[in-house]
Amino acid sequence: MKLSTLPLLVFIFFVGKAVSQNTFLDSLAALVEQLPDDTVKVRRLYELGRAASKENNSQGIPPLLASYSLAKKLGAREWLPEIESRLAALYSNAGALDTALLYVEAAARHYEKLGDLTGLAKAYQYFLYFYKRQGEYEKAAEYGFRSLETYEKANDGKGVITMLGKLGSLFYSLEKWDDALSYTQQSYDAAKKENLPREVAYAAHLLSDIYGETGGNDKAMEYVSKALSIYRQLDDKLHIVVVLNARGMRFAETGRCREAITDYREALEIARSIEALAFLTNIYHNLANCYYALEAYREALDHFEKSMASARLQGERWAEDKTLGRMALAYAGLGRYDSAFYYQTRSKEIGDSLLHVENTNQILELQTQYETEKKAATIAQQQAMLRQQRVRFWLVAGFLALAVVGGAALFRLTRILRKRNEEKEFLIKEIHHRVKNNLQVLSSLLHLQSRHINDGAALDAVREGQNRVEAMGLIHQKLYMGDNLAAVDMRDYLYNLGDSLLDAFGLDESRVKVVFHLQPLRLDVDTAIPLGLIINELVTNSLKYAFPGGCNGVVEISLWKNDAGQLCLKVADDGVGQNGASESKNSTSFGGSLVQILSKKLKGKPQVLNEEGYATLIEFENFKEA
């Protein structure tokens, strides 16, 4: 920044309270325009866009676009994803979801190229929001858990707390109340502990919604008031709008419509002032419902119309579907049965499926009242309309009858296919069960044979063979007991394998402890079996040689996917190491050869690491997740 501009900027900052916010921002924009085209100007335009958007969502977009254009011109790659993320948020708040999605896709690509894990996690978080708004919950969940995992990799505690809340919101949308409450409560407790007011407010708002849905009205009101108090302290106008609307709904649900209207009006005023257009449709609709409940039908109609106008502007079809039938009832409350019948007809034409049976019966009564009040000429006209409606009704009835017949046939076919699938699944489980039983028999035979062997080398070989058989048998046990017949949950499998090996060597955790560092991975059986045998050999090697003479120690098993997409395995111990181990004269190199052969099958090469104790690292390229 030019030195000559600094005193003026300081002056503007301190007199800002004496002039309007717009004047301040306009003055600041003029000063920023005078700066030379460099990365300092990119930063100032970005900061100007952020400041402007706090007062008015749309006013923040032009300076951010200018910052974006200059950053691309200068090749300032580190700035591109930051600006793209901010633009995505502003366009989303303005209701332009398609444009917002384009910017967040670009941000994700740039964060990935820069290796910025926190930024990439933030981009995934935006994807969760967009896909959730579009009702694509499977994609939303995929990006939600991807974001959480990326925040954890980046060791970003605040990001993890934020994503726990976002996942709670996703499960709330899916009406999975237990999961929603679990994730949200974790976020709320962690945010309070770390003194993160914004995250506390978000989680409190969501807890209010969850308790509101599950009948905890007192807790719902307590949490929503906490959220509103925090957002007011932060002067976060956008979230004040959201939480005021939420608290209004809590009031309305308990019959406190006048208090609800007060909240809705304040939310509406702030949303207009910051041009947060995406929220207007819902607020207008909620206001209209409250006025209807208070029998203020004219006010209700006025706000229903505004809700539909906003919905058309934002491309939100739901508002018209939800509103037309309610407008018919409001006109009936005013005694205007002609208008009531008109809106009821429009509601039927667009397939309004949201009217309750009680409201439908009332509308049919309105139709009757309307017909009796018309003159003879109008009655004749209505009779012609009714004849057309009867023809339409019978056509629809015929179509529905055909649909019922087709549906019954499809239902029967579905049942047959499901039964066949269940039979096949049972047979596959039975195969895995029998393979496991046969391997168990083989293990028992080896155990019995070992009791009659006196030669030390032969005894070790038989026992190691028994351990290998049990490692394979455990795979088949997990397959027939699990939900997915083609996938092995490696976390569960390795915990059981570790316990099994400790038992085989007569060890317990007071002497040797097996510690696990495992990413959640479900592997195909063709990958799981050789991998399980490799781990069996490496852990067996540590248990046999790392802790001579009754020494205590730790064996660590780590399994994860690295950034290059490789499956990584590390087995390490803190024992005496390769040089300190007393090599048994009876031992063979079969175990080591087996590890080499199986690693080669999965396109991996074992590496011995120079660490305290003994450690082996293998990176596999050929593996398959299930």
Give a brief outline of the structure.
With 626 residues, the protein is of the alpha+beta class.
Describe this structure in words.
It is a single chain. The chain has 25 helices and 7 strands. The protein is of the alpha+beta class. The strands form 2 sheets. The protein has a 5-stranded mixed beta sheet with strand order 2-4-5-7-6, covered by helices on one side. The protein has a two-stranded antiparallel ribbon with strand order 1-3. The longest helix has 75 residues, at 376-450. The two termini are 55 Å apart. The model is unreliable at 1-21 and 352-377 (pLDDT under 50).
Uncertain residue ranges? 1-21, 352-377
Structural class: alpha+beta
Helical content class: over 70%
Largest sheet: number of strands, sense, barrel closure = 5 strands, mixed
- Tell me the β content: 5-15%
Please tally the helical runs, counting DSSP H or I stretches of 4 or more residues: 25
Q: Radius of gyration over alpha carbons?
A: 34 Å
Task: Report the count of strand segments.
Answer: 7
- Assign an overall shape: globular
**Mean pLDDT score:** 79
- The CA-CA distance between the termini, in Å, is 55 Å
Strand line-up in the sheet with most strands: 2-4-5-7-6
